[in-house]
Amino acid sequence: MNTAIKVEQLSKYYRLGVINNGTLFRDLQSWWARKRGKDDPHAKIGSTREDGKEGFWALKDVDFEIAQGARVGIIGHNGAGKSTLLKILSGITVPTKGTIKINGRISSLLEVGTGFHPELTGRENIYLNGAILGMKKREVDKKIDEIIAFSEIEEHIDTPVKRYSSGMYVRLAFAVAAHLDSDILIADEVLAVGDAAFQKKALGKMNDISAGQGRTVLFVSHNMAAVKSLCNKGIVLEKGRVVYSSENIENCMAWYLNGALADKSNKTVSWYNSGKFYNEFFCPEKLEFISADGILFTEAIPYDKEFAISFSFQIEKQSGLQIGFCFDFYKGSEKIFSIGIPEDEKIEIGEHKFVFKIPSHFFLPGKYVVSGSGSLKQHSWIMKPDSGELVASFEVAGTATENINVSFF
């Protein structure tokens, strides 16, 4: 087995603002204490320190090895360290400590704007990226027509990219990253900026360059369907550490979706907003599993009993846009169905509760995970799908002794 990437004890430490206590006197106290090697009298309790300065470990002692031709999904909640890892592998930032061994040339598609010069045209940026990869002009000449055709922005290819929309930017950036001669392709969540048709086209291209050309792909996304369709292996990050990895991407997805709930003693776990998530246009408060008479379930739900999913939220400010909110149900790594707030529902400012009734025998016995997502339609995400911001679980207990056909709603 040829190794494409090998990472050992990789760590990245970020220092937070060293002095910013709100007043000059307190800033001087902090500066003088640190100058003498003393503890900062205004440091936050529980903050970590490195070289006498407050900060946090974005990555800590990360180890993994990726074979050539592998399609690896990097999975984790927001703040897990995924983007930091890709930036280090791409050479955009340097690690605090640890070693990285890379066999081959890397092309990357990270944040919108990375790798392009805004004053240059799309065509000129194609040649610039080729030069960065060590390609000669004649080599880029052979590829440029294919790149432009794939990006579908032929009319604007000789326009400075600073005038591009984010969608146009991503189309060209992906076309460049996928078609130039690199051995390893790294793609972050930036693909979500493109429309659905281009996302499908991009995923198909990544499948082709990996399975057909033997190139290595590292893919970060909160879209579990996209991860499953593209990747065959996975790594799960949590708080800067590798907490799980597998040669089977479905095992990683199941661990990611269930891992946060696996250590709970109760068999059915509701979700409550602890204050970590807030949005003035749509703020979820709780998701509970209740019986037909309103009793909260904490143990397994009997297979032959009706139950309901109660979802409470509040609206503090009207956005003028339609709110869409959806719950995806997973059994293992498989999404089995979704329910959501009706599209024609008019939601005013104030407290709201929706109750979704579930008939008996609808779910077969087993463990299920519910993941919430929401958006201001045609504008922006409030909570991205599979982001891990709203996750609950329930277990159905009993024996399925008969085949019962149930229609939902």
Write up what this structure looks like.
The chain has 409 residues and is α+β, with helices and mostly antiparallel strands. Helix content is 24%, strand content 33%. The longest helix has 17 residues, at 196-212. The radius of gyration is 24 Å and the shape is globular. Mean pLDDT is 80; it is low at 44-48 and 402-409.
Please tally the helical runs, counting DSSP H or I stretches of 4 or more residues: 8
Shape type = globular
Beta-sheet strand percentage? 25-35%
Structural class: alpha+beta
Mean pLDDT: 80
Distance between the termini: 52 Å
Helix content: 10-25%
Annotate the secondary structure layout:
Layout lengths: L2 E13 L8 H12 L12 E3 L2 E15 L3 E5 L6 H9 L6 E6 L3 E4 L12 H11 L4 H15 L14 H14 L4 E4 L8 H17 L3 E5 L3 H7 L2 E6 L2 E6 L2 H14 L8 E2 L10 E9 L9 E2 L4 E9 L7 E9 L2 E7 L9 E9 L7 E11 L3 E4 L7 E7 L12
Helix pairs in contact: 3-4, 4-5, 5-6
